[in-house]
Amino acid sequence: MIKDESPWYLNAVFYELNVRAFFDANGDGHGDLAGLTTKLDYLQNLGVDAIWLLPIYPSPLLDDGYDIADYYGIHPDYGSLEDFKAFIKEAHRRKMKVITDLVLNHTSDQHHWFQEARQGPDNPYRDYYVWSDDDQKYASARIIFLDTEDSNWSWDERAGRYYWHRFYASQPDLNYDNPDVRREMLEIARFWLELGIDGFRADAVPYLFEREGTNCENLPETHAYLKALRSFMDQNFPGRILLCEANQWPADVREYFGEGDEFHMGFHFPLMPRIYMALRRSDVAPLEWVMEKTPSIPENTQWCIFLRNHDELTLEMVTEADRQWMWEQFAPQPRMRLNLGIRRRLAPLLDNDRRQIELAYSLLFTLPGSPIIYYGDEIGMGDDINLPDRNGVRTPMQWDDSHAAGFSGAPLDALYAPLVSSPGFTPQEINVADQLADPGSLLATVKAMIKLRKSLPALATGEFSWTVTEPEISPNPIAAYYREDDQQKILILQNLSPDRRSFNLKTTTNTTYGLLTGNSKFNQSNGELTVELEPYGYLWFELKPS
Ligand code: TEU
Hints:
alpha/beta; eight-stranded parallel β-barrel; 16 helices; globular; binds 1-O-alpha-D-glucopyranosyl-D-fructose; 546 residues; five-stranded antiparallel sheet
């Protein structure tokens, strides 16, 4: 149950955004911190509690900023540290929290540590990275960026040795066996926490240590270091949070919460693809499966749940057969696929079908965890599968139908990425201004759901339990569940199928089913709730003694 003194992140709505993509204040074609600051009113109005910024450090941008060249600065495209401080101040003034990406596992090869390390075995930075005379060590570690890399080792001509990297070859992994690396990272954390941020989204944490004979993921040494980071934060910056990015099965992610002494929050990767699976199959079974596999987590920790993010929709946490099926269903064109995933946004994935998109949001706001919205998905923005890597889901935010979608005053050919041009998704068709003016827009619905969700703490931390509707059919297209704490009992009914569905639900005597929101019909009488759910329809109720 959420109490007044409960930590804020237990019932918070997060918003993930790319500074480059949000708003360009100086007209150079790249979004910047000053631009983002002018858009804080929009986020406050949407009801967002916390903003997660993708990396804004100086970087050659070969992995869009996850390749960091200097941990202590701001990429000049985005502005300066002064701009960052001003942004934090303005966000806090609006009672919004800010978390930023902390990339622990690797640096850019342009980072001065790596440039020094290459120089020779005696260089003090040599041991900051993981070197080998051959490319055979740690052979059980999988390759993550399968479409671009064929080994986790790359040859460095200057050093005359191989270096280890779990992601792009331009991102050498740091050597966490070196106490200097461990210490440097705490100093980096200190620097940003002193600037006033509220915490970190810690990137790619399963891969910090390497040990022969293992898959080099989730190792005990890695957990020990992450606990040390947590304790450093608790001691020096109490109240600031750590959000874990571990794309792992629930049982493995569970370990990152420790005994409440490691991460405050963790992304629920296995849930995400199963939301799409359940919708496309009109079958609740994938959701039942993942809820059953989801372990309970320590007090004052929380899942972070999401529909999409800045990466490809990862299919690492599904079986091979399900992956093939998901690709056939959601990525019929080869350009839509990337590594083990799908580089498309929410609205195009769901056929730009308003009913399915709304239902996906209904699931996001009622399943256990704090929801994260990916920028642009609140208006149903499209993507551009012709752009390289994952850039197609990182295009400029569509503010209005004026020049450059109201994102920038720069000439169109100076924008960091082209505007979405696919039919149905152009800025003329999808933009914030139109949707703000339209009480029936997706944006209006998402905003209303956020407000409702925040007023119902049982949706954040209450017990979750499935309920049975009658007649029972198999496969079952109805996702029906209760969320309950000692203050509130909420019933959620959702139709995962494109057909209208009628059913009954046995009700408790002396209980009134108060409608919270929904788009379907129901009737309560004689101890039964009779429901007719529209195609992809949903109803949320609060149960009250009558
Ligand atoms: O992703 C790391 C990661 O662990 C994967 O889950 C990744 O999300 C998946 O394979 C899809 O790419 C993080 C960032 O989110 C990603 O943008 C970076 O490219 C990556 O780290 C390397 O820094």
